[in-house]
Amino acid sequence: MDKYVELTTETIVDYVNSKTDFFASDAVYECEEIGDGNLNLVFRVKDTKNNTSVIIKQALPYVRVSGGDWPMDINRGAIETAVLELHYELTDGLVPKVYSFDRDMYCVIMEDLYDYTIMRTGLLEYNSYPKFADQITDYLVKTLLLTSDVVMDHKDKKELVKKYINPELCEITEQLVYTEPFRIGGRNDMEDFLVDFQKTELAEDEELSLEVAKLKFDFMNNAQALLHGDVHTGSIFVNQENTRVIDPEFAFYGPMAYDVGALVANLIMNYISTLAWLPEGEKRQNHLDYLLTATKDVVDLFAEKFLKLWDEVVTDEMAKTPGFKEWYLEDVLVNTAGVAGCEMIRRSVGFAHVKDLDSIPDDTLREKALKTNILLAKHLIKNRHEFTTGAAYQKVVKEITLD
Ligand code: SR1
Ligand code: MG
To answer: Residue with the nearest Cα to atom 4 of ligand 1?
Structure first.
C-alpha cells in the first residue's frame, strides 16, 4: 500500500506483514481494533500460536469522534513516532518501542504493552501503582529539561522547534482547553445541571478569564521544551512495576507546565470520582490516600529531580547563575497549577470529558462532583502562585467533600 487508505481488521494482517517480518510464517492471527481515543485507529495483531503481538496506530485525516466532519492533520502520526523515538532514548524506555513508521499510510507499528493497563482504567478499578510517581517524574523531568535551552545547543533546539511545529493539534488545545470552556457555545458539552453554573462560574467570571488568557498565551508563546502535549491518565500505561507513556501526537515546543499540570489534574479528578463512587470505608480511604500521596509525590519529585538533573546537564552560561534554576522551576510549578485547573474545567464542560466524572452513576453525586471539580479548578487557576509544593495540593484536595 503506497497510497493512504484506512486500515480495517480485514486488511491489518497483510499490512503488517508487508511492512515487517515480525510474525513467524506459522502465525495464527487474531486482530482487533482497540482504539478508544478521540482521533486514531489502533489495532492489536496477535500471533496466538507463538504468543507475540504488535500495535498498529493509524492517524485518520479527521477527528474520529466527529464522525468525519472535523478534518485533522495526519502528519501528527509522524510527529508522534519521532517523539516516541526521542523519548525512548531520553528516558531509557519509558515509552513503547517503535518498530517502524509508514509515511504513506501514517501508521506506526510498535511494541504491544499487553501486560500493562491504561492508568485511567486501573484507577477506576481502585488499583494503586506504587512506582508510578517516581517513574512518571523521571519521564517528565528528562523529556522536558533535556529538550530545553537550559541543556540543548540553542540552534539545535530551534531546529526541533521547527520540526515539531504542530498547528492543528495545538489549535485543539487552544480552543478546547483554553477558550471554549470559558465562553458560551462552541463545542462545549455539559449536562443540563451545569448550564447555568458554567455561565455564572466560568463564562461571566472576568477575573478567571484574565488568568486563563495569561495561561493560554503562555501555552502558545513559550517554546520552552518539547512537550508530550496530552499527559492525561489515558495516555499512560501502568502495572505494579513499570510506567509507559503513549500517544504524544500533541507534541510541540511549549511550556513544561502543560505536561505536569495535565497529569496532576487527572489524579485530582480521580480523587473526586472516588469520593462520589465509593461509600465511606477502608476501600475508599485507601484509594484516596494513594491518590493524595501520588499527587504530592508527582509535584515534589518533579521539583527535586528537576533541580538535581539541572546541575548535571545545564550548559547555558547564564542558566548557571545562582538562583536562576529555582526561579525557573517556580515558574513551571505555578503554571502547573493553572494548567491543572484548565484541564479540570475543560473535562467538565468542554468537548472532551473523562470517564472518572462522567460515569458517576448517581445524578446528585455526579452534579456535586462536577461542580466541586470546577470550583477547585478555579481556585487552582486564581491562586496558582500558592501551589508550588505537593503539600499545597495535599491540603486542598484533602478538604474536598461532596456533602
Ligand atoms: C478532538 S481531540 C479532544 C481531546 O482528545 C485528546 O486526547 C486531547 O486531550 C484533546 O483535547
Ligand atoms: Mg490520545
So the answer is: 352
Q: Answer whether 18's CB lies under 8 Å from 8's CB.
A: no
Q: 352 CB less than 6 Å from ligand 1?
A: yes
Kindly state if the Cβ of 38 falls inside 6 Å of ligand 1: yes
38 alpha carbon to ligand 1 midpoint, in Å?
6
Q: Which of 3, 20, 94, 4 is CA-nearest to residue 56?
A: 20
The pTM of this model reads 0.98
Q: Give domain 12-111's CATH architecture.
A: 2-Layer Sandwich (3.30)
* CATH 3.90.1200.10 corresponds to the domain 117-398: yes
Residue nearest to atom 9 of ligand 1 (CA): 230
Domain ranges of the chain: 12-111, 117-398
Q: Is it the case that residue 60 has pLDDT exceeding 90?
A: yes
Please check whether the two domains, 12-111 and 117-398, share a CATH topology: no
CB atoms within 10 A of CB 48: 11
Cβ(63) – ligand 1 distance below 6 Å: yes
Average pLDDT over residues 266-282: 98
Which atom of ligand 1 is found nearest the CA of 177? 11
Cell numbers of 322, please?
545562582
How many angstroms from the chain centroid is the CA of residue 153? Answer: 27
Per-residue pLDDT for 221 more than 70?
Answer: yes
